[in-house]
């Protein structure tokens, strides 16, 4: 007792009790606890200690899957915590121009981009998550000659990547000799294998999804009994290299055609999932309620008898009394929860709640649940005692109880004062990352720049639980997933989706790069806003990175592909040190500026001033200094791509193979920065 009298009580806790405390904390809290005291470094350094933490809290992350093979659970824990914090606080670990291309697709952690230098064309595949310095190159003319020999002499054709997953790349090839033909090419470039070529009757809204065993493609092309186009799906067995014997799956009840906005399709495990935020009888529903149409079927048995549909008790979406919303800002996706492995419907809606003049974006999560006997959708109807509300000259409208969503399933993003500053045409990427309760945008912040030049910035906002706040357990949610309020016409002081006992703190918002001026920030902005490649932005991303193509928008213009990563393990060869540039905290609302106390302001200033390369000063304008070297580098790369003969480095197959490995283009460009922490 005497020997330990000078040691703080927490440090005297035995190993087992520390492990118990850690089980009650989030990954981020565990990481921050270890940073508070050198004594607790073992919490994030000991693989044996970290293994149960990682396997219990984040078993469905890429880092956890890698740790199962390598045994480096401590590295996985640190990487997850750093990645989440970097994304939440808009503080990326690296940025760079990774390629120049004519088109691109980012899926499954792989960047697939096409370079056209007719008659030569190449598809190049870069493993972004793996930070590789080699790219898998597909010689498109050679691939076509082998896949569809009679099209080899055709010089005018279209070739684009539809999807990539599990090493399988699906492409759409269109050409015309006597008539236009559209073909689906399923290839495995790593082994120079053409798995299947299939002539398509239609390419309307075509999409592809696959895992390592099955592949499905769908088109919005079949006419239903109501005269409207419907989705039709067809499956392929990758293990036997044959189409499934079942006929095509006709989705007569699936409404919506805009993938990513009104419909979404994914393969998780042994099931094919689909969801739509539209329903056939939504307009005719007397209760004015909106429901998701969510279904699944086994990937090996795409039969009507195996189709499962979410019931109305689990698929409620919104009440029309909650107000109108702006479709332009919406998105819809299906994803796996990193902790539980559950399938989640994620939707963003920008709404005018209860007729208010201001709108705000809100992110809604709905757990996908399939109960027994849910093949038929049952909608609740008005009861005899349902109240009605009407105004002068209005016909009676039903007033039904409105469901109040659980707090963990609803995240109010922009306040109306901030949302009014966001212009949809200048917001090039919007996403919500559930694992860290963060919304992220890539915006063109030209309104603050007198020159009017393009100025891309990242904006994030995240929320945390209030101290001492607790959320319902999983068992409680399963027993009663919805709460009810008496009427949709509540007091205007209390939003429908935020009760007075809201357990979350207000959003904390960040912008990157910050407003301060320095030489290091000029280098960052030269990569964000590539001179000569400005005006047209096409962006995508996930929980690890944001990737966008930027060009001047002219016909046939080459795009510069810019990569921003929040993964601390991303380290491409040839990166140079860019300093310690962190995201800058900004008020959550315009009127919060006065509420931001002096301590927070001082803390924000200290974070920015602590880095020697971030200087406090006037707002920075995009500088043209030293951009000539950057531009010439890109021009050299573009020229070398246009004049390139078939590369000689072929390790993916035989000498005559259409797939081979080559040095990654980002090594030729050499425009990459990494940031320290």
Automatic annotation (TrEMBL):
In terms of Pfam families, this protein maps to: F-box
User: Which residues does the UniProt record annotate as the domain F-box?
Assistant: 7-53
Which residues does the annotated region (Disordered) include? 622-649
Composition-biased stretches, type Polar residues, lie in: 625-648
InterPro entries for this protein: F-box-like_dom_sf (IPR036047), F-box_dom (IPR001810), FBXO47 (IPR038946)
Q: Indicate what this protein is called per its UniProt record.
A: F-box domain-containing protein
Identify the species of origin: Xylaria arbuscula
